[in-house]
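Exercise 7. Given the encoded structure of a 434-residue chain, write a plausible sequence.
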């Protein structure tokens, strides 16, 4: 059996994926980002240093791990270089062990301008994007007009294509969005000096990974965002523009499904969401204040306050099914320390007629008409921060975990009890789908 692990978020992102990827990467050969872009913000706390990665996979802090950014990612060459230099400041040198797919779509300044212009025009109806140009870059890919990493290798062609694309964008920016036009020559001028730096990193990453698989090397696939930000299966249109659910790893890497049989879902012990869109279990009371403060719930990419809420088991069960999760990792359990009671949403009531749906109910986009139905659990007063063995957790915390296992019908293999690498409980070896 291969040892590959896919790690993905089961909520609306920021579940603590980066920390878990880092924890599982010590004996990995490759760590892979396969979708999204620098909208992601994955936080690592290692040796009392905080490192936030947006584009480079989280396992990269281990010196012998190879980082791979595959075709499914939208890559800003400027951000990529910035992140490589940021890591160098932390004495982590990645340039010779980081590869980027020739087929990865480029994010360039006009994508960012478009993202911002659209959000501005939408006003109160805005998505609340990270403003990183993600949506427009994926649009270019689907519209078959995108520039890709490989295009950086042909300066003449790059210049011609860039001129065409910028003309297309200027038409929209100026005529429709009433913004300033963009000068393609300026983009080219900024881009050309960067090409040398990344030239040798541009590879066929599918081949690299297939070679690793052949040699039975351990590969970790690091999802970005969360299942309900998925373009197809999320709370559309308040979603990101990639497939954050399991299909994204297949199209995003070019590897077949048999290589992904350990699929670990990362679930925060409560819920958060940054940006706009439905959030049925959202809290606006003292519990929100507690979760925000103790959990430091501020976006790693934009610094925005994250909205907080109780764990939503209706959504979580949907995430388990649509990703074929083999097990869960519950993060930030310690943030619940000190709460008198802890709630889990197990079903929804229709607001108007009081009709009760069950756990198996479908989640529609008609969230405004749904009211969460909660079961209430006793909280605990003891500190769980940094606990390393499940038997050392307070009885109530153990019960909370057991209840999540019952509801989701899959095991909780890992529990995270703090931001540091060492704040972790390995309940058992990771489960695999047969
Ligand atoms: P990601 O995008 O899924 O990688 O998550 P983020 O890094 O955006 O957000 C998770 C935040 O929670 C970061 O600040 C982490 O340092 C922190 N974190 C991760 N796991 C734990 C945990 O178990 N307990 C606490 N208190 N913080 C955690
Ligand atoms: P990680 O990987 C949380 C959200 C944005 C917005 C929506 C669309 O750190 O979990 P986009 O810029 O992608 O077009 O924004 O998606 N979003 C995230 N929320 N964590 C993330 O990544 C996110 N990446 C995008 O806030 O609501
Ligand atoms: Mg994040």
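Solution.
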């Amino acid at each position: 059996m291969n040892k590959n692990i896919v790690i993905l978020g089961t909520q609306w992102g920021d579940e603590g994926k980066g920390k878990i990827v880092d924890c599982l990467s010590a004996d990995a050969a490759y760590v892979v980002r396969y979708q999204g872009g620098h909208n992601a913000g994955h936080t690592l706390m290692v040796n009392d240093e905080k490192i936030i990665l947006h584009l480079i996979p989280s396992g990269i802090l281990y010196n012998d791990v190879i980082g791979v950014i595959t075709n499914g990612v939208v890559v800003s060459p400027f951000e990529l270089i910035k992140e490589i230099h940021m890591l160098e400041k932390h004495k982590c040198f990645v340039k010779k062990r980081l590869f980027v797919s020739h087929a990865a779509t480029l994010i360039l300044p006009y994508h960012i301008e478009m993202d911002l212009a659209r959000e501005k025009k939408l006003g109160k109806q805005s998505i609340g994007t990270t403003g990183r140009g993600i949506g427009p870059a994926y649009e270019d890919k689907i519209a078959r007009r995108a520039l890709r990493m490989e295009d950086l290798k042909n300066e003449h062609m790059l210049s011609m294509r860039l001129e065409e694309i910028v003309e297309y964008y200027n038409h929209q920016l100026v005529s429709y969005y009433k913004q300033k036009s963009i000068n393609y020559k300026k983009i080219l001028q900024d881009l050309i000096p960067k090409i040398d730096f990344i030239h040798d990193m541009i590879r066929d990453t599918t081949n690299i990974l297939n070679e690793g698989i052949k040699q039975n090397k351990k590969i970790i696939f690091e999802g970005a965002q969360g299942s309900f930000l998925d373009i197809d299966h999320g709370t559309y249109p308040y979603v990101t523009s990639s497939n954050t659910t399991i299909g994204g790893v297949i199209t995003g890497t070019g590897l077949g499904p048999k290589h992904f049989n350990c699929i670990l879902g990362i679930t925060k012990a409560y819920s958060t969401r940054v940006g706009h869109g439905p959030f049925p279990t959202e809290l606006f009371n003292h519990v929100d204040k507690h979760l925000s403060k103790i959990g430091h719930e501020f976006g790693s990419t934009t610094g925005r306050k994250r909205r907080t809420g109780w764990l939503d088991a209706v959504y979580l069960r949907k995430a388990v099914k649509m990703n074929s999760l083999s097990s869960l990792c519950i993060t930030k359990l310690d943030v619940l320390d000190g709460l008198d009671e802890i709630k889990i949403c197990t079903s929804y009531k229709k607001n108007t007629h009081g009709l009760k749906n069950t756990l198996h109910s479908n989640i529609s986009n008609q969230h405004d008409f749904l009211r969460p139905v909660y079961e209430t659990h006793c909280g605990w007063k003891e500190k769980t921060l940094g606990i390393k063995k499940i038997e050392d957790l307070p009885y109530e915390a153990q019960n909370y975990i057991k209840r999540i296992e019952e509801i989701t019908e899959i095991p909780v293999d890992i529990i995270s009890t703090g931001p540091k690498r060492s704040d972790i409980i390995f309940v058992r070896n990771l489960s695999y789908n047969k």
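Remark. Residues 155-176 form the longest helix (22 residues). Students should compare their own answers with the one above.
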